[in-house]
Amino acid sequence: MYKRVLLKLSGEALMGQKQFGIDNDRLAEYAKDIKELYDEKIEIAIVIGGGNIFRGVQAAEGGMDRTQGDYMGMLATMINSMALQAALEKEGIYTRLQSAIEMKEIAEPFIKRRAVRHLEKRRVVIFGAGTGSPYFTTDSAAALRAIEVEADVILKGTRVDGIYSDDPEKNPNATKFENLTFEDAYSQGLNVMDLTAFTLCRENNVPVIVFDMNKKGNLKKVVMGEKIGTLVTV
Question: Which pTM value belongs to this model?
Answer without folding.
Answer: 0.95
